[in-house]
Amino acid sequence: MKKKFMCMLMAAAMTLSMAACGSKSDDTNTDANTDGTDSAEVQTFKLGSSGPLTGDAAIYGMAVVQGAELAVNEINASDSKIKFEFQKQDDEADGEKAVNAYNTMMDWGMQVLVGPTTTGASIAVADACYNDRTFMLTPSASSTDVTAGKDNVFQVCFTDPNQGVGAADYMAENYAGAKVAVIYRNDDAYSQGIRDTFVKEATDKGAFEVVYEGTFTNDTASDFSVQLAGAQNAGADLVFLPIYYQPASIIFSQAKAMGYAPTFFGVDGMDGILTMPGFDASLAEGLMLMTPFSATDEANQAFVDAYTAAYGTEPNQFAADAYDGVYIVKAALEAAGCTADMSNEEICDALVSAMTSLKFTGLTGTDMTWNAEGQVSKAPTAYVVKDGQYVKG
Amino acid sequence: MTQKMNKFNSLKKTTKVDFATYLGVIVVFIITTILQNNGSLKRSAIGLLVPICCYMSMAVSLNLTVGILGELSLGHAGFMSVGAFSGIVASQSLMGAIPNAPVRLAISMVVGAIFAAIVGLLIGTPVLRLQGDYLAIVTLAFGEIIKELINCLIIGYDENGLHFIFNPAGNKTVDDLGLSASGTAIIKGAQGATGTATIATFTAGFILVMITLIVVLNLTRSRAGRAIMAIRDNRIAAQAIGLNLTKYKLMAFVTSAALAGAAGALYGLNYSSLQATKFNFNLSILILVFVVLGGLGNIWGSLIAAAALTILPEALRQFADFRMLIYAIVLIFVMLATNNPQVKAFFQKLLPHHRASAEKED
Amino acid sequence: MEFLSYLISGISLGSVYAIIALGYTMVYGIAKMLNFAHGDIIMIGGYVSFCAMFYLGLPNIVAVLLAVIVCTVLGVVIERLAYKPLRSAPSLAVLITAIGVSYFLQNSALLIWKAAARVYPPVVEGSMQLFGGKLTVSYVSLLTIAACVVIMIGLTTFVNKSKMGKAMRACSEDKAAAQLMGINVNATISATFAIGSALAAIAGVLLCSFNTSLMPTTGSMPGIKAFTAAVFGGIGSIPGAFLGGLLLGIIEAMAKAYISTNLANSIVFAVLIVVLLVKPAGLLGKSVTEKV
To answer: Which of the residues A108, A288, B268, B348 has an alpha carbon 20 to 30 A from that of A348?
Structure first.
């Protein structure tokens, strides 16, 4: 009996001590502002970012935290009066883990959050940010549910409805009378969200016809022969793919293998396909996509080179959004005149009022502005892939 | 006092262990609450309290199926999912009728438990005749089916009541629900439940763990529980002495499902967004790991394993990229250390006292 | 014609499942353990062959051989280090260890090869046209189906005719009795893991050629599906795994094409449940009468 009781106590003690040590773990490098610059004017803010760094969606989370890290390093190396201390955390694209990651960063003293990466995780964290009054700018969570009803949550990327409507309008203008098939991932809020508004807008416009819709899920994202055969048999000459580039690359090669060559049309998640290691760029020939960022655009060359040098892969739109996100936070902090000794609540209130009057030009848009709901207003550019390069179309 | 002690000593060993388990949970709850109130717990620790309670309850309830009934189930997350989403629907739609959050939380957890129990009954009735790995694969299959079916559900609520759409083709949206202007969408198909009011509390988690313990321990120590264990130990002998196998198997399975449903409801109401894909095969496996690590049939072992393995990945955050790798290595080593006869013998040599008591236990 | 194209894609997908399921079934039949790390060995096979082709520029066939060798060694090493010490432990403990190994392989792959998906160049390119171009069949599909049939026949012959095969069958019947008859049980189990892992490497190459993509999590879902296929056909039975894999692939393709892509996996699993309820030991499994 005594032994069992001791076991319970030991377990309790272990549980508590582990909990404490888990949260203490990142306190080590707290005073980065002491090295390098002694100027009293330099303000060092604590900036956090999170995304899935393991698991299926790691490719997107890695891009976001690396893009943010690159921007932070650049800013810290510059003579800017605002500097950042940076922490990145793995959230496994999961609401529970994302809130854990957020709490860990709050323990560290995070003042501003540039993250999370994925929609589901962002909604869960946005709720916590709203309750704690922490300013949150998500680079890539595009659902309107992320920002809805929360004054302190902002987005760098387009909202899903925005993209669906944009794509439908573009098609109505340029491909009137086309037969369109949609292949989308229906366990993904991003893909489903764009598809919903796209189909609605298409029905309202009536300029072209949606003849086939095929879905897939994360578990079935490796074989699209059935969906492609369905689209082919329905006579679709245009295939709309509101999905990320990784499954899209499979669709292209399987379509080629079965001898089906429609015009493919992608959205911002498609960007990055040309730089996938080993991807045969000829498969994407003629691909249309509407994206705010292009790695082959000359204006973005400096960023692309720096990112490639630092991380060994070319950046995609997620990295660009996160990179912009850090600079947007910097611009907003400057505009609001925040100082590093302010609490996260004070910074949050200052940034919320600064954001709506901010005008920002970055990699992913010119003259971006934000409405009070936290949604960005910027224009996507339509590109077409020619000879393995984006050409404005 | 001495008299009381004597009375305690005269209790059966299992009863003592049960009391120690209850006492341990209560003590940990009180300590944690005190620490939380005087501000010495970090946010990251506080954030873990509710999920730990949910996982403890999941582990104990799965232990009822795997450890006590002796049937391997790989679909326990499916029941959690049913409980979570039905709990969320209940909570969101009762928002106007019952503004008091704790009462609504309690009702939602009961609703979650009921729905999970119904699903458990529907699944258990046909499949419990299977055994071993075949039963395991069928429960895995049901877990995956539940996940995909919930992915096809669109549910909204307005003053006319609940609106449902089952959307297997994926071409319907919230707009097709026909909600009135004041209505809200609760579950949006694959996008899951978003905008849920987060009303889960640590106290509710503690009560859930206590109820789970009371239900499971009392069932185990009852006549029915002995019948269940008899089926585990020797099915044919149990049948020969006239035990109704289906009845007792179902009893354990449905109880386990209901408790998982209640835990799911609490979990679902702790986060403002939840997708059905969260409750996948990996989560079922994770809970099974808690059970095996804690020891089959060992209830307090499940509690400790659930807490430790929920904290471990968070405690490993300092290792950044190597976090999950270290987690995997720890898992393998713990399994080797606790199950290899040589390693076990080595530890028992070091602790002669432990060996004596271990022998007594057997 | 439409139906035929769905059928062919179902059969070739099913063939990949069948090859993976054969590995599962071999290991299960002899070691009586569910090797959840099997799917991740597939992924390793994919990455090794990818690196050999893409970075080292080796010919495809050499790359495949290299993948087979690496996976075989890996399988045997894993068995030695992680599973052998647990030979006498309860089967659930081994199951959890296998899950730990699976996490380990996945996260090692994530660290070594990074998260970004690789585009996998198919080992054979091109396709052939049938019925005047109405039906296109890729060579990868044909290769997969052929490989599956060859492996199935080869494995059946090996298990039924060779000495090692006999030892394997003896071990699967009764390990203690086999040992008494002078069979080296440990060596037999190691050999089983070697064969299973070699099959996983081949399956990895074919799966990646079929999907043209490769990620650290590539193997997990096919692994679970193949496990389902093995149970479907009767776990422990070699023709059963073959049949189960093929049927699973065909049902999946047909469900996607004619019922609902959303519920394709559910339909596969529902068919599995119904089959198991009617034939509790799978399609070709022996139902063992319990001794009292």
So the answer is: B268
Beta bridge partners of A88: A49
Domain boundaries, chain C: 15-219
Answer left, alpha or beta for residue A49, where phi above 0 means left and psi between -120 and 50 means alpha: beta
CA atoms of B213 and A164, how far apart (whole Å): 50
Q: Rounded to an integer, what distance in angstroms lies between the CA atom of residue A325 and that of residue C265?
A: 39
* ipTM for the whole predicted complex goes beyond 0.90: no
Partner A contacted by B96 (CB < 8 A): no
How far apart, in whole angstroms, are the C-alpha atoms of residue A269 and residue A195?
Answer: 13
Mutation for A interface: B26, B44, B303, most A CBs within 10 A: B44
Q: Using CB atoms, which residue from B31, B45, B274 is nearest to A23?
A: B45
User: Which residues have a Cβ under 8 Å from the Cβ of B362 and sit 6 or more positions away?
Assistant: none
d(CA C16, CA C32): 23
Architecture of domain A161-291: 3-Layer(aba) Sandwich (3.40)
The answer to whether residue B170 neighbours chain C at the CB level (below 8 Å) is: yes
Q: Indicate the class that CATH gives domain A44-157+303-377.
A: alpha beta
Which residues make up the CATH 3.40.50.2300 domain(s) of chain A? Answer: 44-157+303-377, 161-291
Task: Tell me if A369 sits within 8 A of A147, measured CB to CB.
Answer: no
Confidence band of B355 (pLDDT split at 50, 70, 90):
very low
Give how far Cα A352 sits from Cα of A126, A133, B192, B307, C14, Å. 14, 10, 28, 38, 55
Strands in A360-362's sheet, in edge-to-edge order, are A360-362, A365-370, A376-377
Contacts of A261 in chain C (CB under 8 A): none
User: How many CB atoms lie under 10 A from the CB of residue C2?
Assistant: 14
CA dist A217 and B189 (Å) reads 13
pLDDT digits (tens, 9 = 90+) for A19-57: 444 443 343 344 444 444 444 578 999 999 999 988 778
Top-confidence range, A122-131, A155-164, C217-226? A122-131
